[in-house]
């Protein structure tokens, strides 16, 4: 009974005439053209078949699939390029990612969230960017800097990092992996990934910063913060002496003129001494268990410059700074300069065993786009 | 070339059905079908007899399906569309009895689809291709005892789900 039913059902499962004829055509061409040429043609044919090349649109629509655990539809019967990219880099990593393949086009550039891996407070997102119009902005030089974010519609604060995976010349896609840590577990129901700006032209320089000139005593000065960042999980307490303070009321009980929080940074001299159109290393000091590195990014009205410092210990292990304080200073001539001070929280018993490096980025072209993709994830 | 053309015509349905039983949808079965015959046309294999040819096509089809499953992408996705076993080109059933038979066949196939992949292949080769346990073990390069165990376990699951003797 079972066998009869099984056979009856499977007798109807036959390859389409088109499919068989395609192979028979190959057989005939094989006899006409000779083996070697035909082999190449067959290989090309197979490759096309596995891509979207030969598949009619109707078939593409018919085989939409629902992803395991996710209500997201994507094309079936082919492997997205991103998986080939990840599998090349790390097959183990590919196993963790859930395909998303939702995209957003702005300014003739398509941002596609390819796949995501979420676990508790941590999320890894694989994203691609490609030109879809006549512009030719996406290439191996493209970068996101820090203009991206992941929100779960509950206003959870996040911090993260972005690494360039590769640029695929065939598809014209630049792939990135973004790692984010939230202050509490993500709500997996509905998530938005956004990118506000793409850096299309930039140069980067890795510079070793001499740790032989570290000051052990340094005067601190108060500055009004224009930005404050951290590379630490949110629950990590900022040491009390580093915490930004709300400005105090005046003796008359009036609100201060500048309401921005205040923090203390190294007082290293006159701002006039640093360039307005480049990055300048201002100084470095180690005191109270904190290694401080101060840089001047110059005037950023017409350019953007960033620095990413990191320490490397004797074993080669790298660690970024824990906190970043940013502020601006204007000299008597009206020249405005942007400063940042990077704090590495120690203690560091043998500082001489460390090396300090700075990745210095100079931005020469960007596209403001506000790309945004919302997708749903379920447990 | 006549020989190759004949082989394509003879083994095309078998390869396609076996791929379908393993990958569970027509699109993927078509891809595997094409891949298997591309391999065949690329190769310079000369079959000793039909048994040799059948064994070769079964083994290559199963290997291509295994490679398909190696991709993380394919492991993670499941079909949104349920394959209609009656097929789009079959037309409406002519009689009530025909309709009941189709429904019955669909149920059997859907139940077999729920089996683990390693059980589906032995079920298909045993019940559709009428191969013996020894033949299956030879084609899949597995011990007969392994095939027998897989078949027994698959039958137990099917019996439980179909509420009938398998």
Describe the structure.
The complex is a heterodimer of chains A (about 375) and B (about 170). In chain A, the strands form five sheets. Chain A has a five-stranded antiparallel beta sheet with strand order 3-4-5-8-7, with no helix packed on it. Chain A has about 375 residues and is of the alpha+beta class. Chain A contains six helices and 19 strands. By secondary structure, chain B is mainly α. Chain B has eight helices and one strand. In chain B, helix 1 packs antiparallel against helix 2 and helix 6 packs across helix 8. The chains are: A alpha+beta (about 375), B mainly alpha (about 170). Strand 1 of chain A pairs antiparallel with strand 1 of chain B, so a sheet runs across the interface.
Please sum up the structure shown.
With 379 residues, chain A is of the alpha+beta class. Chain A has helices at 2-11, 17-33, 35-50, 57-62, 81-89, 91-96, and strands at residues 65-67, 73-74, 98-106, 109-119, 122-131, 148-151, 158-168, 173-182, 190-209, 220-224, 227-230, 262-266, 280-287, 290-298, 304-312, 318-320, 323-330, 336-345, 355-376. With 166 residues, chain B is mostly helical.
Mean pLDDT of chain B: 80
Spell the H/E element sequence of chain B: HHHHEHHHH
Annotation, overall tally of beta strands of chain B: 1
Largest sheet of chain A: 5 strands, antiparallel
- Globally, the shape of chain A reads elongated
The main sheet of chain A orders its strands as 3-4-5-8-7
The assigned structural class of chain A equals: alpha+beta
> What is the arithmetic mean of pLDDT of chain A?
76
Strand count, sense and barrel status of the largest sheet of chain B are: none
Helix-strand topology string of chain A = HHHHEEHHEEEEEEEEEEEEEEEEE
**Secondary-structure-derived class of chain B:** mainly alpha
């Amino acid at each position: 009974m079972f066998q009869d039913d099984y056979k009856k059902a499977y007798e109807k499962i036959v390859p389409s005439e088109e499919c068989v004829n395609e192979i028979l055509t190959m057989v005939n061409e094989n006899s006409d053209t000779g083996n070697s040429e035909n082999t190449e043609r067959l290989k090309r044919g197979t490759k096309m078949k596995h891509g979207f090349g030969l598949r009619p649109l109707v078939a593409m629509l018919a085989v939409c699939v629902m992803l395991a655990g996710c209500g997201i539809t994507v094309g079936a019967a082919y492997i997205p390029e991103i998986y080939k990219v990840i599998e090349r880099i790390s097959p183990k990593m590919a196993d963790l990612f859930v395909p998303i393949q939702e995209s957003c086009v702005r300014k003739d550039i398509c941002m596609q969230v390819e796949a995501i891996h979420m676990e508790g407070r941590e999320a890894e997102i694989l994203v691609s960017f490609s030109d879809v119009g006549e512009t030719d902005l996406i290439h191996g030089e493209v970068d996101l800097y820090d203009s991206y974010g992941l929100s779960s519609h509950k206003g959870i604060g996040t911090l993260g990092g972005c690494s360039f995976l590769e640029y695929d010349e065939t598809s014209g896609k630049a792939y990135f992996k973004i790692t984010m840590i939230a202050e509490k577990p993500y709500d997996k129901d509905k998530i938005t990934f956004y990118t506000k700006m793409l850096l299309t032209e930039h140069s980067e320089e890795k510079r070793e910063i001499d740790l032989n000139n570290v000051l052990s005593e340094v005067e601190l000065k108060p500055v009004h913060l224009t930005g404050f960042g951290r590379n630490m999980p949110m629950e990590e307490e900022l040491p009390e002496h580093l915490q930004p303070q709300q400005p105090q009321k005046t003796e008359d009980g009036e609100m201060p003129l500048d309401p921005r929080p205040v923090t203390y940074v190294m007082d290293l001299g006159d701002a006039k001494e640093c360039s307005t159109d480049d990055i300048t290393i201002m100084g470095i000091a180690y005191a109270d268990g904190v290694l401080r590195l101060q840089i001047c990014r110059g005037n950023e009205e017409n350019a953007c410059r960033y620095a990413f410092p990191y320490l490397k210990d004797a074993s080669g292990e790298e660690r970024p700074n824990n906190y970043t304080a940013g502020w601006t200073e204007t000299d008597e001539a009206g020249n405005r300069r942007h400063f940042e001070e990077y704090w590495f929280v120690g203690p560091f018993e043998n500082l001489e065993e460390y090396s300090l490096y700075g990745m210095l980025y100079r931005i020469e072209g960007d596209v403001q786009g506000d790309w945004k993709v919302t997708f749903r994830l379920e447990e | 070339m006549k020989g190759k053309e004949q082989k394509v015509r003879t083994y095309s349905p078998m390869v396609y059905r076996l791929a379908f039983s393993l990958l569970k949808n027509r699109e993927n079965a078509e891809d595997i079908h094409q891949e298997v015959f591309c391999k065949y046309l690329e190769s310079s294999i000369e079959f000793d007899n039909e048994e040799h040819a059948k064994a070769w096509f079964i083994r290559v089809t199963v290997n291509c399906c295994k490679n398909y499953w190696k991709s993380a992408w394919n492991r993670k996705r499941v079909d949104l569309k349920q394959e209609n076993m009656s097929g789009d080109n079959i037309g409406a059933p002519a009689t009530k009895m025909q309709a009941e038979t189709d429904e019955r066949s669909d149920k059997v196939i859907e139940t077999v689809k729920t089996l683990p992949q390693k059980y589906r292949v032995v079920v298909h080769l045993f019940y559709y291709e009428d191969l013996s346990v020894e033949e299956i073990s030879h084609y899949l390069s597995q011990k007969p005892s392994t095939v027998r165990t897989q078949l027994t376990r698959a039958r137990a699951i099917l019996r439980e789900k179909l509420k009938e003797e398998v």
